[in-house]
Amino acid sequence: MMANVLIFGGGLQALSAAHSLQLSGCRVVMATKGDRVASRSRFIDKHIELEDDSDPERLFPLLSRIVEEESIDVIIPMEDEQAACLSRCKAWLENGSEVKCAVAEDSLFSMVSDKSSFISFCEKNALPHPKTIALKGEGNEHDGLVFPLLIKPNHAAGARGLTLVRSAEELDAVLPWVVSSYGACTLQEYICVKDYYYNVMLYRDVNGRFVNHCILKILRYYPINGGSSCCGITVEQNDLLRICEETLDKLDWVGFADFDVLEGDDGDFRLVELNPRLPACLRAAEVSGVNFPMLIVSDALKGDATPYVYSPGKILRFLGLDLVWFLRSPNRFKATPSWFRFGGKNLFYQEGGRYDAKAFACSMLEGARKFFSKSFRAQKSGMN
Question: Which pTM value belongs to this model?
Answer without folding.
Answer: 0.88
